[in-house]
Design a protein that fits this description.
The complex is a heterodimer of chains A (571) and B (364). Chain A is 38% helix and 22% strand. Chain A is of the alpha+beta class and 571 residues long. In chain A, a hairpin with an 8-residue loop joins strand 21 (510-516) and strand 22. In chain A, helix 10 (233-242) runs antiparallel to helix 21, helix 14 runs antiparallel to helix 20 (478-493) and helix 15 crosses helix 20. The termini of chain A are far apart. With 364 residues, chain B is an all-alpha fold. Chain B has helices spanning 3-29, 36-59, 63-91, 106-123, 131-155, 159-175, 180-197, 203-213, 222-235, 247-250, 262-295, 299-323, 341-359; strands at residues 97-99, 102-104. Chain B has a two-stranded antiparallel ribbon. In chain B, helix 1 packs antiparallel against helix 13 (341-359) and helix 6 packs antiparallel against helix 12 (299-323). The chains are: A alpha+beta (571), B mainly alpha (364). Chains A and B meet through helix 1 and helix 2 of A and helix 6, helix 9, helix 11 and helix 12 of B.
Chain lengths: 571, 364
């Protein structure tokens, strides 16, 4: 009887074990099967080399350089204290920060965790030789972005870095992963999908120590595609040297197709510091710098155009037949409107349109402002592309502001006063544009009305991108544009022109100066926006100096730039 | 006597040992342990020695075991003391004695000695003078004799074997003529004492018990084995990954896999099908053995058979359960399957005694 009970107990326990087996192998079988796969199958990613960024003459602007990372295989680490101490001596780095990095990057006991990125080549060789003394230490090779010209084209090109949280949530559907290197700002960001290539990797079977046993499958990484920019490094360098130590922007564009030949924003930064591992302080310095070196002033800085806008007002007045080329107004240095004086920078006496543009006479344009009124001023500003994006291939662009009656009533809760028209007509007041918009505006005049789209990409993998076969034209008579265009020549050519100091024997330059009064904040903004050669424009350009003083300051820089360009035989 | 029972038992035992050989071959194929290649061949030799022992034992009169029971017991105690002292002084702490080319585990021998001793003691006619004397002779004295080897095994430290000896003691006392009420009170007292026993456990034993409750508290330490073992068995799914093709096994994720965790290797490579066949074989073996125990008119023979059955059954159940993570890892091998000479020979000896009992059933 008691034997029977024992028998039953044993049978019950066997059944329990059998049930456990059914549960583990049948019900949870697939779950454990996947776990066993995770155990022994490692995906070893192979970074795709990022495509190069070249200038129009194939000079490398963003390169990939061999770099060395120091990594440690956690489970092979024996005497952690001692090892980190020795490493910190060799690398000449703080031991605590190395340990912090190690903890941060540690994943599985057999997966190497990076301790120091981008170590010196000499240090890498020393560590490689002393390897036996440091169990678990390995030196990994890595390709690292390098910008050989440092700050020269930093704003246009941008930089790369490890993907951040906001971007990963936005981009994970497009195959971006944690720790991916992606482009930040500039073309690196805008054309990231082209530049990044496709990560490859191998599925490797490993044993319990992470030692590869066999390769199950592998896919080669696909190099990112190279992009060729419209930038001309020679002009870029000239321009960036000229702006050194100043705040402002220079843009040089081919008016015929919108190719940006140079785009400089100053102050600039060295994009390489974002790539290197140990420049947290430098990056903070950039972010906290009150001169905002990271801001691309050329496309995202908003400024009043000042007298540059007079070119638009002149077109508006002629086109809407408010005046003709013979109409003249008397300038005694100011205009009184509603008990308030609106000043001119000089007394010009009788001025017709040609003279008023040449001398940048405010009083003449005040009269035009009153004749045109808010709506027509607004209409022509918009016609020249102000207040809307140029659509340049950069991730950040500002669209500026063109004043109008409705804008003023909505945002300022005020009616439009005639005084607003006066300010508007000389490019002061609420009107804001980016230097790129100023260039585009000038390009429309230089092109006799053809609207081009400014862009920086010339070719992908050596294959030129397609440009539009036909361009849109502004809704302005060619005759009007030709007239104003010819007056812009006088600004430089005439001895009394505001930009006469820019006059050169071997190059005919046209354009418009601008000196912007800034309400109490330092000196004026200085503008010169123009094109050359006058007969058949090859470049439109803009020299803008933020709080740089009178427009002549810009003209000086523009002249130096053009002379350098002539010297380099770029024309 | 029933000859077909003996034949079936021999067949099942040899089947189990063959399965063990096949599994050990696979388990040691990629092992990085020194001398791993020799393990399979050594086990072949042990199987041969085991079968010989089984046949020789089956032809002995089992009453001879009755006679030597009281002799084997003190020998086993001496061996346990020797391994305890030597283990402490020379090697740190270990469970075996190095005897030339093999390691002898006195704890395995201790289990055998306790079964023989208790079977003899409990089968002897007692002169009970009242209730007290019955408890004394039926429970306290056997407990005393079981406790000595149990304590020594526990100190080795081998928690699993100590628990198993205690379990066998309980079963044999239960099968002798103690009153059920007394036994239940005794078990109640033991259960009440368990919290106090916690303090006597070694740190690693506490760890193992805690890890059993939640293997993930220490996935790279004590929990590692359990996790890897569950993954191995589970990933075998229904059909298994095939012989020599278990990734957990062949890629060294599974520790101790030719000894205590051999079942995980079988589960991974032969799947539910193979593992179930193994359990069914144990089940059939114990069914046959149970018939011998039941039909034996000799009290000693019946208790001996029941002790043998309990030892094999519970050691197998505990081992399988611990590989499945439903019992703490206590270091018990899988009878007839795990690598290990002393264990295999002693189990074969025990099977031999069963056969011997069956052969001589008619005589009494």
């Amino acid at each position: 009887m008691r034997l029977k009970i024992l028998h039953i107990i044993i049978v019950v326990f066997f059944l329990i074990a059998l049930l456990g087996l059914v549960y583990t192998q049948v019900f949870k079988g697939l779950f454990y099967y996947r776990k066993s796969q995770n155990n022994c199958i490692r995906i070893v990613p192979q970074q795709a080399k990022r495509g190069l960024v070249l200038d129009r003459n194939a000079a490398v602007l963003a390169d990939n350089r061999m770099s060395f990372n120091l990594a440690i295989i956690p489970q092979e680490l024996k005497d952690k204290e001692q090892e980190f101490l020795s490493i910190s001596r060799i690398l000449d780095k703080d031991k605590a920060s190395l340990e912090k990095e190690f903890r941060k990057n540690q994943s599985l006991p057999f997966v190497p965790a990076i301790v120091a990125k981008n170590i010196d080549k000499k240090q890498a060789i020393i560590l490689e030789q002393k390897k036996s003394g440091f169990p678990g230490v390995i030196v990994e090779q890595d390709a690292q972005r390098f910008y050989p010209f440092h700050g020269a084209a930093a704003h246009a090109i941008g930089y790369v870095g490890e993907i951040d949280k906001t971007r990963i949530t936005k981009l994970k559907d497009y195959g971006y992963k944690v720790k991916d290197i992606i482009g930040y700002s500039g073309l690196e960001e805008f054309y990231d999908a082209i530049l990044r290539g496709q990560e490859g990797g191998a599925q490797i079977e490993v044993d319990n120590r992470g030692i590869p046993v066999r390769v199950i499958a592998d896919r080669l990484a696909q190099r990112g595609r190279d992009i060729t920019l419209t930038l001309d490094l020679r002009i870029q360098k000239i321009a960036s040297d000229l702006l050194e130590g100043k705040r402002g922007a220079i843009i040089v564009m081919d008016p015929n197709n919108g190719e940006i030949l140079a785009m400089v924003s100053s102050p600039t930064f060295d994009p390489n510091i974002f790539v290197s591992q140990n420049s947290g302080e430098d990056i903070n310095g950039l972010l906290n710098n009150k001169n905002s070196p990271l801001l691309n002033r050329a496309v995202a800085g908003l400024y009043s155009p000042g007298s540059v806008f007079k070119a638009v007002v002149a077109v508006a007045a002629l086109e809407s037949k408010k005046i003709d080329i013979y109409s003249s107004f008397f300038c005694n240095g100011k205009m009184n409107l509603g008990g308030r004086d609106f000043n001119c920078w000089s007394k010009h006496n009788d001025q017709n349109l040609e003279q008023a543009i040449m001398h940048s006479c405010n009083v003449f344009f005040y009269h035009l402002g009153l004749l045109l009124g808010a709506d027509l001023l607004n209409k022509y500003a918009v016609e020249f592309g102000l207040g809307s994006l140029t659509g340049i291939d950069l991730p950040v662009e500002s669209k500026g502001l063109v004043p109008s009656r409705s804008q003023k009533s909505i945002f300022k809760k005020e009616a439009w006063f005639p005084g607003d028209s006066l300010n508007f007509s000389i490019g002061q007041g609420d009107l804001l544009l980016t230097p790129l918009q100023a260039v585009k505006l000038m390009a429309i005049i230089a092109n006799n009305g053809i609207i081009i789209k400014p862009h920086l990409l010339k070719a992908i993998e050596g294959k030129d991108i397609e440009l539009p076969k036909k361009y849109r034209k502004v809704n302005i008579k060619a005759e009007t544009l030709a007239r104003v265009k010819s007056y812009l020549l006088g600004v430089v050519k005439s001895e009394t022109g505001t930009a006469h100091l820019l006059a050169m024997d071997n190059l005919s330059i046209a354009g418009k100066t601008g000196t912007v009064q800034t309400a109490g904040f330092g000196r004026q903004h200085a503008w010169f926006v123009g094109f050359a050669p006058f007969e058949k424009p090859k470049i439109v350009f803009c020299v803008f100096l933020e709080h740089g003083g009178y427009s002549s300051e810009s003209c000086v820089i523009a002249k130096e730039m053009l002379q350098e360009m002539l010297k380099e035989k770029i024309f | 006597m029933n000859k077909s029972i003996n034949n079936r038992i021999i067949l099942i035992t040899i089947s189990l040992m063959s399965i063990g050989l096949v599994a050990i071959y696979s388990a040691t194929l990629q092992s990085s342990l020194e001398g791993a290649k020799l393990i399979f061949y050594r086990q072949i030799i042990w199987v041969v020695i085991g079968i010989t022992t089984l046949l020789v034992t089956s032809n002995l009169n089992y009453r001879r075991f009755y006679e030597i029971a009281y002799l084997l017991y003190p020998i086993s105690i001496i061996l346990l003391v020797i391994v305890f002292v030597l283990g402490r002084e020379i090697y740190g702490a270990q469970r075996w004695l190095e005897l030339g080319w093999f390691n002898f585990q006195p704890s395995e021998f201790g289990k055998l000695a306790v079964i023989l001793f208790l079977s003899r003691y409990l089968s002897q006619k007692k002169n009970y003078s009242g209730k007290i004397s019955k408890i004394w002779q039926g429970l306290i004295v056997p407990l005393f004799f079981a406790a000595i080897p149990m304590g020594l095994v526990f100190l080795q430290p081998d928690l699993g074997s100590a628990a198993l000896i205690f379990l066998i003691f309980l079963i044999l006392v239960f099968l002798s003529d103690i009153e059920l009420k007394q036994l239940l009170i005794f078990i109640g007292l033991i259960i009440a004492a368990i919290p106090f026993m916690w303090h006597f456990l070694k740190e690693y034993q506490k760890d193992r018990l805690l890890v059993f409750l939640n293997p993930n508290v220490d996935p790279l330490g004590a929990g590692y084995t359990i996790i890897q073992s569950k993954i191995a068995i589970g990933s075998g799914m229904f059909w298994g990954k095939g012989w020599l093709s278990g990734t957990q096994n062949q890629l060294n994720f599974l520790p101790e896999r030719h000894t205590d965790f051999i079942f995980s290797v079988i589960g991974e490579e032969w799947g539910f099908l193979g593992a179930m066949v193994l359990i069914i074989l144990y089940f059939l073996l114990l069914n046959e053995a149970m018939q011998i125990a039941r039909h034996s008119k000799d009290k000693f023979a019946s208790l001996l058979a029941a002790g043998v059955i309990s030892l094999i059954a519970f050691q197998a159940i505990i081992n399988i359960s611990m590989t499945l993570g439903i019992f703490p890892v206590v270091g018990l091998s899988l009878p007839f399957i795990s690598y290990g000479g002393s264990s295999l020979v002693i189990f074969c000896f025990l099977i031999g005694t069963l056969l011997s009992i069956n052969k001589r059933r008619i005589i009494f």
